[in-house]
Amino acid sequence: MSRRGTVLPFHGDEAQKKMRRRLFSACCKMHGKAGYFMGLTLTEKILKAHVVDGEFVKGKEIGIRIDQTLTQDATGTMAYLEYEAMGVPRVRTERSVAYIDHNTLQSGFENADDHRFIGSVANKHGIYFSRPGNGICHQVHLERFGVPGKTLIGSDSHTPTGGGIGMIAIGAGGLDVAVAMGGGAYYITYPKIVKVELTGKLSPWVSAKDVILEVLRRMSVKGGVGKVIEYCGEGVKTLSVPERATITNMGAELGATTSIFPSDEITKQFLKAQKREEVWTELKADDDAVYDEVLEINLSELVPLAACPHSPDNVKSVAEIGNMKIDQVCIGSCTNSSLLDMLKVAYILKGKTVHPDVSLAIAPGSKQVLNMLAQNGALSILIDAGARILESACGPCIGMGQSPNSKGISLRTFNRNFEGRSGTKDAQIYLVSPEMAAASAITGVLTDPRDLGEMPEFKLPEEFVINDNMIVPPVDEKDMDSVEILRGPNIKPFPQTAPLVSDIECKCSLKVGDNITTDHIMPAGAKILPLRSNIPAISQHCFTVCDEQFPARAKEMGKSIIVGGSNYGQGSSREHAALAPLYLGVKAVLVKSFARIHRSNLINAGILPLTFVNENDYEKISLGDDLAIMNVRADIEAGKTQLTVVNKTNGAEIPVLCELTGRTKDIILAGGLLDYTRENLSK
Questions:
Q1: Catalytic site residue 596?
Q2: Per-residue pLDDT tens for 225-256?
Q3: CATH of span 306-452
């Protein structure tokens, strides 16, 4: 028999499983442990099968084995520079894939050079390379590489898309991905698990996008922190894999560790159509699984929804917003660019013309989707209607083209509508379903798609067109030494780090409010993202959305502390939001609360993450105040979780939490994850 916390060999039919459970329960009772055993959630089953370090207890840190990794080019260059610095010659995962999908605009040499660098690193070190034009990483990975029951981390916050086929797929910083490629474990806090019980069936013209917007409306952008969202219930059977992937993709906006659906017959049919049926396995929660929270959603009761500016959880029904005049519609992104989405859009646009006051841009999610649209005539319908067909890439979602007009109102099928993310600071961005987007593009005003009348049945094909000629496999290990790494002049080394000092004495270089996103910290867009492999250059744009003087002020101070509000660092997994402050001399960030990925990235960069014990103490610090954290290294070495920040300007003594595990403590002491990894590899 085994205690909970170890992997139990449950094989065979359900009767055998129930018998084992009864036997184990009886054994527990004999030992005074009645109730110790319970059924497992799907999340627990996969995590338990992958735990390699730590205690499998809620709230404790666990290290899990990673089966697959992905990177995209906005984060990939830095991830591969970090991987090189570790000195591991060949990746040790089952499958690692490098995608080019973010920075595909080549208005200068920077993006083209970075693509060449990533391609050469991938070829040498055992990584598959998805060329520019092949599609968005999450869409392509779902189609061609995802495997139910496997673990995946990606240097993109929307990696949870893989949960649509039953993967534990988690967004992470590039350095975490580099360590996983080198064979290291990925560490998370054992999460709470939220059961979202789906009942009923979606009404005509109500979509999966409306499901996740409803979840966001109820839980908020910080309601998923420290949690996995697990979808269950009879309503699951009514949702296709692309619909499930839309829901898990936008689960990132909840701040959740990940989201997941069971792997069932619908999953099997999708993989069969992709000619990958052999990787399918049935996966579901036990009937007696116990969840930390339960959220019930009747699909039949949902109505078309939209996330209003400037947050994905600012959700209202189309009826509440009214017939708002619009300027632009963008359809695509990793959230809503599947073949199913595009077929619905083509049906709505057939025989129609885009309103003369509206610009409609459509980006299919992958080469596969674009190819099939071309073959079945749907692409011609989109073109005839007046849509502007974009490359199969992230594009407008990250401000890479198609910025709205000044003060423009843009409907987008994307996942984020943060202020300025579109490339136009005063634009008003609404997140909607493809159905609502297409209908509105015709009328020129926000339109309820239910006004379209009867909806036909949209089915996925029995076979997708399979052509992987834009996925380049790496050379054999025996030939890797012959591969030259191609480095352009924009590629600079990882910023210098150093072990944690004895005392931190410096000024407050910046004070910001609640819900600061990674787009506030490190803006995206066509002008800035090409600098992603050049931390000195990109740091000059750090926090300029909030305070244009911050980069110069922080550099002049030499070292400093940033103070912020709640949910600091929500949004993207881009570790540049930690590396740029590191380069500018930021030693600690003191806030009311952190978003998960960004807090991890700060630790990886060697920046101390601190939270107020009393949130009202936020008012006791102002920009430019002299702050001190004395004996900080000794206190952290001793395992203290409460430190004191002294404001030498006004005399305030502020208690703060520094909650570090044994491992994260060692990372901070070493000066960051790269230093820590080097130390351990050398042992």
A1: no
A2: 999 999 999 999 999 999 999 999 999 999 99
A3: 3.30.499.10
